[in-house]
Amino acid sequence: MANGLPDPPRGLLTADAARSLVDSVDAFLFDCDGVIWKGDKLIEGVPEAMELLRKLGKKLVFVTNNSRKSRRQYSKKFKSLGLEVTEEEIFTSSFAAAMFLKLNHFPPEKKVYVVGEDGILEELKLAGFECLGGPEDGNKNIKLEADFYFEHDISVGAVVVGLDQYFNYYKMQYARICISENPGCLFIATNRDPTGHMTSAQEWPGAGTMVAAVSCSVQKEPIVVGKPSSFLMDFLLKSFNLETSRMCMVGDRLDTDILFGQNTGCKTLLVLSGRKLLLFDICPTIAFTRSVSHAWDCNCRLYCLTRIAGRFE
Fold this sequence. Notes:
It is built from 10 helices and 15 strands. By secondary structure, it is an alpha/beta fold.
């Protein structure tokens, strides 16, 4: 049995299993990159699937590890793609980083150094924290000359590392020296995804590559606040009156989305729209389908296209 559902052949989500899943769930948690969109391109069938689930009275929540945008910015992206999603329905790893510091009473006199982009900076500032770093440090260079001493702000009490297309040696050294030399400085990672759908054409290095670089330089593991960490779920449960047993996590990554759901007691549904997986990579106890629209079709019938069984392009 997978999440209380009968095991379909090879884990493929059948019509009966899809109906049973929807009946047993009050809230669906959706990953975004590779599930709702790829880059700035909406995945076919998503609007119809979302509309159907809302008509059925299901709560929709969007949980993304991509820290490049804030909840406000993601709400604008949803709208630009023709989807009405409020900020309250969006949980990002950038927001999770800010909430982690807030809930753990991060000292107001301390600063946060950001290896990341505007999404992290915006969420931290909204939470009342003073930050430095971010995209503007992407233009700073280091000359490794004799007796060169790297200056840093000793009031930095936390370093947050997320996806950063402007990642460079300057940022890595600033993060390293703060974590290593500032007493009690926290090392926080938004997530450790190795790759992500930054464009619709292909995958790109994810936040995990930046986190790994900093982690290696300080010989220390970070506090991870995004999926599959349970911190994000704990905060989500405080925001909504829901039970994890009545939730389903829908995602395209086994190591983050599906593990996040399983770690927190949710049902899980793996969609193959985001990442190319071989059949033997998929645990037989996980329900899976080609995409969101294959689980809930455009004609409002709950079914999965069984023609994809055994055929993964």
